[in-house]
Structure prediction request, 505 residues.
Amino acid sequence: MIKFKFIYPVLVAITLFSCQKDEVATPLENTQNEDLSGYQEIASINLGGLGAAEITAFDPSTNRLFAVNNGSENKIDVIDISNPSSISVIKSISMKPYGGYVNSVAVSNGKLAAAIESTNKQAPGKIVVFNTTTYAEIKSITVGSLPDMVTFTPDGNYIISANEGEPSADYLNDPEGTISIIKVSDYSVTTLNFASFESQLASLTGKGFRIFGPGKNFNKDIEPEYITVSDDSKTAYVTLQENNAIAEVDIASATIKKITPLGFKDYSLAANAIDVSDRDNKIEFNPVSKLFGIYMPDAIAYLSYNGTPYLFTANEGDSREYAAFTEMKRVSAVSLDATNFPTASALKTDLNLGRLNVTTTLGDTDSDGDFDALYSLGARSFSVWNAATGSQVFDSKNELDIKAKELAVYDDTRSDDKSVEPEAICIGRVGNKNIVIVGLERVDAFAIYDISIPTSPIFIKMFKTGDAPEGIIFIPASKSPIKQSLIVISSENDGLVKIYKTTKL
Prediction:
């Protein structure tokens, strides 16, 4: 299902206002040593309630934030943050002439790119480019159906959109999921589908890739969600959320090079213990045998460290729920294999596994009508992957759940679903440290980790924020109007954009 989100690219490590990428080998300039645990809210602005503050992009040349606002009308609000402690909306750019909802924004070299879906969501959408100073339209480009995320390459030469291609409610119109590559020099566009990978279906599904909609049409079933780009602007990595995979794209040749399935998370392991019931009146984390999580990442961020490329993913999970097809059922409503689940009756109670939502598309390994294993959506974590090999090198296991409980923000009513629901992820650099910021949609918080060693992230602190944080921006000291790093959080359920600052060390 569609989500609105954005993290935009950097030019080099020291210009890391996009929260996507960093290169340890790049010399630093104008960085500040700051207290990673000391970020505090210094400003907040309400753009209009539900749907009014989903994604933001920052233009350092004008000190303006561009915020997606699909509240009372479809528009992009321009926020002056020259003084980050006192911010205000100075302009709104109407999206009415261009179609339906605006889903994402990105900024590069004085250009603002907006991803806009058609009023008929299944029809081709648009990427519209504006001047960040005058707000005048520069170019409107037709792309695939439902462009859900847009970004520039770090060098500013290309615009890339992930076109989700969601079906209609009756599933009679299911467009292909695609990726569009736009050359900024002339705004020519190439839109890619996944047809060349259909012959690999058996191999891909054996590693955790999912094709499962009505009719199981390969091209139509793939739904690109989110993009990050390598520091050299050569390679894009695109999450295929519903499909539980990441696609790698060669930008210059406009070619999808490979699809990497992400496999499953084993909840029988003590380190992965989870709370599965929203009706037991307690928050308690336990391992569960024959229960697996499907990573299904939403946002993704790139980091190069000592010559190795890494991908950081926010493992949200997302279900298909349409009038003609829904994949989810509670454990209490499914038949469990007697051999694999000998205590099925007890497991299916509300106080045990009964309330847990699981997909009906996986788990019946012998096709006899009962479930031999159970698969829930998302992994309640963030992960780090070696981009070259596709192997997982780190997972936060159940630490985000535990820290949310310690902060007293854990929402037990979400235990049966996807728990804290990590959705946004953003990489920055503070002094000599790389950090990752993880937005937690269902507990209204974000967490900061020290990723100086990307294979061994260290938890720093969790912070309360607005209702359902959707977008995160890190503005480094070198690009900040006050020469201190800033974190910008936009939240879709209450329409708040919040700015956080920490103290110098």
About this structure: Helices lie at 201-205, 218-221, 344-347, 399-406. The radius of gyration is 22 Å. Confidence is low (pLDDT under 50) at residues 1-18, 20-29.
